[in-house]
Amino acid sequence: MQKFKYAILFSAAVAVSTLASAADVMVGGQSMLPSKDIVDNAVNSADHTTLVAAVKAAGLVDTLKSKGPFTVFAPTNAAFAKLPAGTVESLVKPENKTTLTKILTYHVVPGKYDFMTLTGEIKKHNGTTELSTASGGKLFFMMNGPHNITVKDESGGVANISTYDVYQSNGVINVIDTVLMPK
Questions:
Q1: Percent of the chain whose pLDDT exceeds 70
Q2: What InterPro entries does its record include (predicted)?
Q3: 3-state secondary structure the chain
Q4: Which among 81, 96, 149, 183 is most buried, taking Cβ atoms within 10 Å?
Q5: What is the pTM of this model?
Protein backbone atom coordinates (compact mmCIF):
# COMPACT_ATOMS: atom_id res chain seq x y z
CA MET A 1 0.00 0.00 0.00
CA GLN A 2 2.82 2.42 0.94
CA LYS A 3 4.59 1.79 -2.42
CA PHE A 4 1.32 2.42 -4.25
CA LYS A 5 0.84 5.74 -2.41
CA TYR A 6 4.37 6.88 -3.32
CA ALA A 7 3.86 5.83 -6.94
CA ILE A 8 0.72 7.98 -7.14
CA LEU A 9 2.51 10.95 -5.54
CA PHE A 10 5.48 10.54 -7.89
CA SER A 11 3.18 10.30 -10.93
CA ALA A 12 1.32 13.43 -9.85
CA ALA A 13 4.60 15.33 -9.38
CA VAL A 14 5.81 14.29 -12.84
CA ALA A 15 2.48 15.31 -14.38
CA VAL A 16 2.60 18.75 -12.73
CA SER A 17 6.22 19.22 -13.79
CA THR A 18 5.38 18.23 -17.37
CA LEU A 19 2.43 20.64 -17.49
CA ALA A 20 4.55 23.47 -16.12
CA SER A 21 7.30 22.95 -18.69
CA ALA A 22 4.74 22.60 -21.49
CA ALA A 23 3.37 26.02 -20.53
CA ASP A 24 6.82 27.60 -20.87
CA VAL A 25 7.40 29.30 -24.19
CA MET A 26 10.79 30.37 -25.53
CA VAL A 27 10.99 34.01 -26.64
CA GLY A 28 14.25 35.73 -27.46
CA GLY A 29 16.19 32.65 -26.42
CA GLN A 30 14.73 32.55 -22.93
CA SER A 31 11.94 30.61 -21.30
CA MET A 32 8.94 32.80 -20.50
CA LEU A 33 7.60 31.55 -17.19
CA PRO A 34 3.84 31.81 -16.60
CA SER A 35 4.56 32.47 -12.91
CA LYS A 36 6.30 35.77 -13.77
CA ASP A 37 4.64 39.02 -14.80
CA ILE A 38 4.87 40.70 -18.21
CA VAL A 39 7.86 42.90 -17.32
CA ASP A 40 9.85 40.20 -15.52
CA ASN A 41 9.58 37.93 -18.55
CA ALA A 42 10.14 40.61 -21.19
CA VAL A 43 13.44 41.78 -19.66
CA ASN A 44 14.85 38.30 -20.30
CA SER A 45 13.98 38.24 -24.02
CA ALA A 46 16.89 39.18 -26.27
CA ASP A 47 14.29 39.97 -28.97
CA HIS A 48 12.58 42.66 -26.86
CA THR A 49 15.36 44.89 -25.52
CA THR A 50 14.04 47.91 -27.45
CA LEU A 51 10.52 47.36 -26.12
CA VAL A 52 11.79 47.03 -22.55
CA ALA A 53 13.86 50.22 -22.88
CA ALA A 54 10.81 52.05 -24.27
CA VAL A 55 8.55 50.77 -21.46
CA LYS A 56 11.08 52.03 -18.92
CA ALA A 57 11.41 55.41 -20.68
CA ALA A 58 7.61 55.79 -20.71
CA GLY A 59 7.32 54.94 -17.03
CA LEU A 60 5.04 51.96 -17.68
CA VAL A 61 6.94 49.32 -15.69
CA ASP A 62 4.68 49.51 -12.62
CA THR A 63 1.55 49.43 -14.78
CA LEU A 64 2.65 46.29 -16.62
CA LYS A 65 3.66 44.65 -13.35
CA SER A 66 0.20 45.25 -11.87
CA LYS A 67 -2.55 42.65 -11.57
CA GLY A 68 -4.06 42.97 -15.06
CA PRO A 69 -4.98 40.93 -16.93
CA PHE A 70 -3.39 42.52 -19.98
CA THR A 71 -2.72 41.31 -23.47
CA VAL A 72 0.45 42.84 -24.86
CA PHE A 73 1.14 42.73 -28.58
CA ALA A 74 4.91 42.92 -28.18
CA PRO A 75 6.96 44.20 -31.14
CA THR A 76 10.40 42.64 -31.52
CA ASN A 77 13.63 44.58 -31.94
CA ALA A 78 13.35 43.84 -35.68
CA ALA A 79 9.87 45.43 -35.68
CA PHE A 80 11.27 48.60 -34.13
CA ALA A 81 14.11 48.54 -36.68
CA LYS A 82 11.52 48.85 -39.48
CA LEU A 83 10.62 52.35 -38.25
CA PRO A 84 12.31 55.29 -39.98
CA ALA A 85 15.87 55.92 -38.81
CA GLY A 86 16.04 57.88 -35.59
CA THR A 87 12.41 57.25 -34.58
CA VAL A 88 13.12 55.09 -31.53
CA GLU A 89 15.95 57.33 -30.35
CA SER A 90 13.63 60.32 -30.61
CA LEU A 91 10.69 58.64 -28.88
CA VAL A 92 12.66 57.63 -25.77
CA LYS A 93 13.70 61.24 -25.08
CA PRO A 94 11.95 62.71 -22.01
CA GLU A 95 10.26 65.44 -24.06
CA ASN A 96 8.49 62.73 -26.14
CA LYS A 97 7.24 60.65 -23.21
CA THR A 98 3.55 61.40 -23.96
CA THR A 99 3.85 60.18 -27.56
CA LEU A 100 5.86 57.13 -26.54
CA THR A 101 3.30 56.25 -23.86
CA LYS A 102 0.45 56.52 -26.37
CA ILE A 103 2.23 54.22 -28.83
CA LEU A 104 3.14 51.64 -26.18
CA THR A 105 -0.32 51.59 -24.54
CA TYR A 106 -1.76 51.16 -28.04
CA HIS A 107 -0.10 47.70 -27.94
CA VAL A 108 -1.93 46.78 -24.71
CA VAL A 109 -5.48 45.46 -24.58
CA PRO A 110 -7.21 45.04 -21.22
CA GLY A 111 -8.12 41.36 -20.75
CA LYS A 112 -6.55 38.08 -21.76
CA TYR A 113 -6.64 37.38 -25.51
CA ASP A 114 -4.80 34.24 -26.50
CA PHE A 115 -5.02 32.53 -29.92
CA MET A 116 -8.23 30.64 -29.11
CA THR A 117 -9.98 33.72 -27.74
CA LEU A 118 -8.93 35.91 -30.68
CA THR A 119 -9.94 33.22 -33.18
CA GLY A 120 -13.32 32.86 -31.48
CA GLU A 121 -13.91 36.62 -31.61
CA ILE A 122 -12.92 36.75 -35.29
CA LYS A 123 -15.30 33.90 -36.17
CA LYS A 124 -18.10 35.40 -34.09
CA HIS A 125 -17.77 38.70 -35.98
CA ASN A 126 -17.66 37.21 -39.49
CA GLY A 127 -13.93 37.35 -40.19
CA THR A 128 -12.73 40.45 -38.38
CA THR A 129 -13.00 41.83 -34.89
CA GLU A 130 -11.82 44.96 -33.13
CA LEU A 131 -10.53 45.45 -29.63
CA SER A 132 -10.06 48.64 -27.66
CA THR A 133 -6.53 49.38 -26.48
CA ALA A 134 -5.37 50.86 -23.20
CA SER A 135 -4.62 54.12 -25.07
CA GLY A 136 -8.26 54.38 -26.21
CA GLY A 137 -7.58 53.33 -29.79
CA LYS A 138 -8.75 50.31 -31.78
CA LEU A 139 -6.92 47.29 -33.19
CA PHE A 140 -8.49 45.10 -35.88
CA PHE A 141 -7.87 41.33 -36.06
CA MET A 142 -8.41 38.91 -38.93
CA MET A 143 -7.29 35.41 -39.88
CA ASN A 144 -4.47 35.03 -42.40
CA GLY A 145 -4.68 31.30 -43.05
CA PRO A 146 -5.82 28.70 -40.54
CA HIS A 147 -3.11 29.34 -37.93
CA ASN A 148 -2.14 32.99 -38.26
CA ILE A 149 -3.81 36.18 -37.11
CA THR A 150 -2.92 39.59 -38.47
CA VAL A 151 -3.41 42.83 -36.58
CA LYS A 152 -4.27 46.05 -38.38
CA ASP A 153 -3.76 49.41 -36.69
CA GLU A 154 -5.75 52.64 -37.14
CA SER A 155 -3.10 53.98 -39.52
CA GLY A 156 -3.43 51.01 -41.90
CA GLY A 157 -0.29 49.20 -40.79
CA VAL A 158 -0.42 45.42 -40.46
CA ALA A 159 1.49 43.13 -38.09
CA ASN A 160 1.64 39.34 -38.00
CA ILE A 161 1.60 37.55 -34.68
CA SER A 162 4.71 35.37 -34.76
CA THR A 163 4.47 33.82 -31.28
CA TYR A 164 1.14 33.27 -29.56
CA ASP A 165 0.05 32.57 -26.02
CA VAL A 166 3.06 33.55 -23.93
CA TYR A 167 1.16 33.32 -20.66
CA GLN A 168 2.14 35.58 -17.77
CA SER A 169 0.92 35.83 -14.20
CA ASN A 170 -0.92 39.03 -15.19
CA GLY A 171 -1.95 38.30 -18.77
CA VAL A 172 -0.59 37.10 -22.07
CA ILE A 173 1.96 38.32 -24.63
CA ASN A 174 1.57 37.80 -28.36
CA VAL A 175 4.79 38.66 -30.23
CA ILE A 176 4.35 40.80 -33.36
CA ASP A 177 6.63 41.67 -36.27
CA THR A 178 5.65 45.34 -36.80
CA VAL A 179 5.13 48.30 -34.47
CA LEU A 180 1.45 49.31 -34.43
CA MET A 181 0.64 53.01 -34.73
CA PRO A 182 -2.40 54.84 -33.41
CA LYS A 183 -4.06 57.66 -35.39
A1: 83
A2: Adhesion/Biosynth-related, FAS1_dom_sf, FAS1_domain
A3: CHHHHHHHHHHHHHHHHHHHHHHCEEECCEEECCCCCHHHHHCCCHHHHHHHHHHHHHCCHHHHHCCCCEEEEEECHHHHHCCCCCHHHHHCCHHHHHHHHHHHHCCEEECCCCHHHHHHHHHHCCCEEEEECCCCCEEEEEECCCCCEEEECCCCCEEEEEEEEEEECCEEEEEECCCCCCC
A4: 149
A5: 0.82
Tell me, what's the pLDDT at 36?
A: 81
Q: Which CATH class is domain 26-176?
A: mainly beta
pLDDT in tens, 68-119: 899 999 999 999 999 999 999 999 999 999 999 999 999 999 999 999 999 9
Q: Which amino acid is at 144?
A: N
**How would you class 16 by CB atoms within 10 Å of its CB: exposed for 0-12, middle for 13-18, buried for 19 or more?**
exposed
